[in-house]
Every structure is written in structure tokens, then in C-alpha cells.
């Protein structure tokens, strides 16, 4: 299996980055090949420009070289794992911009080239699971990411896994717990 692990956090010493590194290591240990796409480290620009805006009259539009390179990395993956901090109860801007620019018409939808791909969204949330449930944020994130993005793009095997109470500093035991609870192999 080949996996693409996408990281969406500006600090390399964050719990998000540590979780993504552990996901990578776990997948390697299970015999997978892994491509790590660190959106901040690679200088990804999340701003949608005309070159990457969908053309509703032409589903074969050729997007920018940067976007085509990201599309190729997604297309090469059997499993896409997006590891991100939950900010304002959603994706951070860089991850949302990545979806806006890269998961584009003629690649991700109309038509989708991603059928058969598996997807796991791992969101690290600062608040408790009770807080998320009380306000419906857990359900909203699941519907937005699993249904609104993954399933819309033809990915039927998609899960959203939220990790709660993540404001403490990363330590090996906590990161292992997070990755184990995400059930990468499932």
C-alpha cells in the first residue's frame, strides 16, 4: 500500500506534527510506502487563483503545475491521511485551501479519479468530546469531511477521527495513543 500523509500545522514541534510523524512510522512498520506532504514546510499557497479555479465549461482544464503535482501525489496513494488541528471547529485555512485548489473538477469530481482510494481525516481538537457532542461539532466535521469532501469525490472508504483534549505538549505515549486509536489499518 502507498499512503499520502498530509500535515497541516505551522509548527514542527506541535502535537499535530508528532502525530503525523507517528502515522508515517506506523504505516512504514506495516510495510507501506509513505509520501509526507507537509503543507507549511513545502510552502503551499492556499489561495485559489484563476489558474486553479474550476472551469464549468471544460472538465479537462489543465491546472497549474503546483496543483498538478499535488494531484499526482494523491492519485498515487491508496490511502490519504490528513492530520490537522481543528481550528474554529473546522480545517485550518491551509488545509481548506489545499482542498479548494487541488481537489478540483476533472480530478476529484466530475469525473472523479479517486474511486478505490481510502481516506482518513485525523483532527486534533483542544476541547473535550462532550463539548463537541453538545454543540454538534463532531457531527458537523464528520459530514463536512467524510461526506462533503471524500464521498463527493468518489471516496467511499473515508473516516473522520477526532482526538479530543489535545492542548498538552506532545509526548511519545500520547502520540502512540492517538495513532492507535485512529486504526490506520482498518
TrEMBL record:
The UniProt entry, under Pfam families, shows: Flavodoxin_2 (PF02525)
State the GO CC annotations. Answer: cytosol
InterPro entries from the entry? Flavodoxin_fold, Flavoprotein-like_sf, NAD(P)H_dehydrogenase_qn
What GO terms are given for molecular function?
NAD(P)H dehydrogenase (quinone) activity
Question: What residues does the Flavodoxin-like fold domain cover?
Answer: 1-176
Per the record, the domain of life is Bacteria
Keywords of the record, alphabetical order, are: Oxidoreductase
PANTHER family according to UniProt: NAD P H OXIDOREDUCTASE-RELATED, NAD(P)H DEHYDROGENASE [QUINONE] 1 ISOFORM 1
Q: Which family does it belong to?
A: Belongs to the NAD(P)H dehydrogenase (quinone) family.
Q: What is this protein called?
A: Flavodoxin-like fold domain-containing protein
Provide the organism lineage as a comma list: Bacteria, Bacillati, Actinomycetota, Actinomycetes, Micrococcales
Amino acid at each position: 500500500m502507498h499512503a499520502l500523509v498530509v500535515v497541516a500545522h505551522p509548527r514542527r514541534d506541535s502535537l499535530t506534527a508528532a502525530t503525523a510523524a507517528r502515522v508515517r512510522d506506523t504505516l512504514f512498520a506495516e510495510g507501506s510506502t509513505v509520501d509526507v506532504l507537509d503543507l507549511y514546510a513545502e510552502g503551499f499557497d492556499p489561495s485559489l487563483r484563476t489558474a486553479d479555479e474550476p472551469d464549468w465549461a471544460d472538465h479537462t482544464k489543465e491546472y497549474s503545475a503546483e496543483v498538478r503535482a499535488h494531484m499526482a501525489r494523491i492519485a498515487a496513494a491508496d490511502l490519504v491521511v490528513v492530520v490537522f488541528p481543528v481550528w474554529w471547529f473546522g480545517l485550518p485555512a491551509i488545509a481548506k485551501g489545499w482542498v479548494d485548489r487541488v481537489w478540483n473538477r476533472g480530478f476529484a469530481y466530475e469525473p472523479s479519479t479517486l474511486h478505490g482510494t481510502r481516506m482518513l481525516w485525523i483532527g486534533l481538537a483542544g476541547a473535550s468530546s462532550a463539548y463537541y457532542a453538545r454543540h454538534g461539532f463532531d457531527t458537523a466535521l464528520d459530514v463536512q469531511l467524510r461526506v462533503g469532501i471524500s464521498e463527493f469525490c468518489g471516496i467511499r472508504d473515508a473516516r473522520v477521527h477526532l482526538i479530543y483534549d489535545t492542548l498538552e505538549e506532545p509526548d511519545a505515549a500520547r502520540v502512540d495513543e492517538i495513532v492507535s486509536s485512529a486504526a490506520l489499518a482498518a
